[in-house]
Amino acid sequence: MPKHIVRLILLIVAFGVAVVSARNFLVDKSFYEYGHYRGNAVAEIARDKPKYQGTTYCQSCHAAQFAEWSKGVHDRTDIGKVVKCEVCHGPGGGRDPQQGYINASTGPIHPDNLKLAVPTDTRALCTLCHEQMPGRPLQQAQIVIEDHAGAQQCTLCHNPHSPRMIFGSLAAPAHPGNAAAGRDKIDMCASCHGAEGISAGLPGPTLAGQNEAYLVEALKAYKAGKRSNPMMTAMAANVNDGDIENIAAYFASLKCKRTVNAADQAALARKAGASVCTNCHGANGISTDGMAPNLIGQSKDYLANALKAYASGTRSNVVMFALTKGMSDVDAEKLAAYYASSSCK
Amino acid sequence: MDEKEQFGEGQAARRSFLGCLGTAVVGGAAAVAASAMLSNETRAAAVDAPPVPAIPGYDWSKHHWAFGVDATKCIGCLRCVEACKAENEVAPDAHHFRTWVERYVYLEGEDSARVDSQADPVNIEASGSEGKYRFANRYKDAKVDKAFFVPKLCNHCTHPACVQVCPTGATFKTDDGVVVIDHTYCIGCQYCVQACPYGARFFNEALKVTEKCTWCYHRITKGLLPACVEVCPVGARIFGDRNDKQSPISEFIKNNRVEVLKPETGNAPNVFYVGIDKEVS
Hints:
The structure holds 2 protein chains of 2 kinds.
Chain A: H1 3-26, H2 40-46, H3 55-59, H4 63-71, E1 75-76, E2 81-82, H5 85-89, E3 95-96, E4 100-101, H6 122-130, H7 145-149, H8 179-183, H9 187-193, H10 212-224, H11 230-237, H12 241-253, H13 262-271, H14 275-281, H15 300-312, H16 318-324, H17 329-340
Antiparallel strand pairs in A: 1-2, 3-4
Chain B: H1 3-45, E1 65-70, H2 79-88, E2 99-107, E3 114-117, H3 121-127, E4 144-153, H4 161-165, E5 171-173, E6 179-181, H5 191-195, E7 202-204, E8 209-211, H6 217-220, H7 227-231, E9 237-241, H8 248-255, E10 271-274
Parallel strand pairs in B: 1-10
Antiparallel strand pairs in B: 1-9, 2-3, 2-4, 5-6, 7-8
């Protein structure tokens, strides 16, 4: 065989062997272990440390908040709506609030050296889900925040862990009163509140058709000195608990004939700046949730004085204090005038 | 006349190089033969049970993952998008998303939908930051005929076009049904970004590799849910194992008329949708 052909063959063989051995050294040993890829990559990808830890992780330290949350509307597993801790507070692991997100495999987890954010701007946070918006399913609770809360933060009235409003103190009375028995005890009341509970021009507020639980609450507050009024403090001091329930039942049973309906009033309420009030007291002054007192039939002066009393803290109620804080007298008069416009006939 | 005079210096250098090459080739061939024998031995030992990747407490041959999206429940809160970015350390800007949410709005008198996502400048302005997301209430005063939100993510197709085109074997489908990327083998050619019919892949300029949704492979192999499913407050995202007939995804597929995006491409997606419109693709 000619010498140059032998050299050429040797060269080709040498090149082939060089390629095969180079490939053998360079390609990862696990390549083609399971397919046309590096087999070890699977376990490497699976090795990352999870950042979202789940509610059980939070519960191990924050049992009280967890219990509160698990009883509320933000944990409704039955209808598939569960707003877990980390949805609002952020991931419990692997986050450095100063430097953004840090290396997955070495990152610290709460509580070691990581403080989770407690959201402060709840107006922005809650409206991520609850802002009224085309495209949101109807079953999602949605609000127009300006109408619903004015400029207030959501947490002023709502507990974000259990946001549905339940005023325990205004729950239905444990012992329903006897209206007929109550009727015999109201001689003293009638002089200021009217025998039919309608105080047209009398010094006391209208009581006809008022929420029974609210009346019980009010009388007990006067009696215990939590609420003060020279006349009422003296009156309530001599009434026993059974009579309080009967008197409340009597006034609640009386009729305040409603002259307006809520739908007609909604636009007017917005105009008067009373949109926030309507969430509980209704646009027509009739309590929407059965917890807040009805405002229908009250005089303008009575309502304005009540607002001012809440604002100054002389009459105490967490929600009303929050809503009236910083309210000007002019605004209070305006709101009072709006609700005073619907009266019992 | 000796060779040096006849062919000059260059010829001598080539000869000596070829001589060295010959030695190297013999050595190399010996090494190849040795390692081939070695790997044959290890293969023979493991022939009883097919090998599985070394993930503690996890056997990929026992799972067949799939994902469901119930668009009738989605409220467009974008908690999934933020959770995904946090969990997977995706760049906190408005250009890189492993999962995203689209809003389709049909206005009165218009034939086609107006589509925007959280990355739309109007929505970024509403959120106030490129790393935080919220849908601006831009249609609140418009006459809307129909509107809905559609969460999107990698479809983890049964016949993924992206895997087909990868020149290095850097992206592949695992035996349990997840399409992932081996970042040490990715050369950043972005051919897969072009190949994906769903726009589910993007280029990570910092690492010079392509990135995509992995269904949080590091979570599901530990018995957790993907981060987006974990945080969804309304149950619009469903995840589970199709091998388990009681799993949420098996129930979802059984109880709903599900559909997939762009079935005509032949990729055979494994993300199943309910409540979307013909215009969604």
